[in-house]
Amino acid sequence: MAPRTSHRAAPVHARLDDVTVQEALAALADPVRLRLVRELAGSADWSRACGSFDVPVGKAALSHHFAALRAAGLVEQRDEGPRRVNRLRREEFDARFPGLLALVLRGD
User: Fold this and answer.
1) Could you give the number of structural domains in the chain?
2) 52 in any annotated domain
């Protein structure tokens, strides 16, 4: 029997020049996505797999939330073997929307 291989499509990432501030704010307005961004902000790049986040949603909903964060230019993902790992696109996002991420991460 042949070994099983993953046929998962590579994640699609937004070009930040195409993201509007309204799209960024809408992505950050959801409490689950905000929690994901905050946890990523406190983690080293590429150190967090999707399943490592403690959020109150199932696997399908979590995939939807990560897709929304990618579409808003906040998160980059890549596959490492069977795991999909993440990084916050902090520098790129800050260049596009100066100060916005800092405000969100401050949590006031």
Assistant:
1) 1
2) yes
- Backbone φ and ψ of 54, nearest 5°: -95, 85
Helical pair 59-71 and 21-29, crossing angle rounded to 10 deg: 160
Structure token digits, residue 51: 């399943």
User: Tell me, what's the pLDDT at 3?
Assistant: 46
Q: 24: Cβ–Cβ under 8 A, 6 or more apart, which residues?
A: 72, 73, 74, 93, 97, 100
Domain with residue 80: its CATH number is: 1.10.10.10
SS (H, E, C) 20-64: CHHHHHHHHHCHHHHHHHHHHHCCCCCCEEHHHCCCCCCHHHHHH
* Structural domain boundaries enclosing 86: 17-106
pTM of the model: 0.88
pLDDT tens sequence across 35-56: 999 999 999 999 999 999 999 9
Q: Are 40 and 86 in contact (CB under 8 A)?
A: yes
Q: Kindly state whether residue 9 falls inside one of the protein's structural domains.
A: no
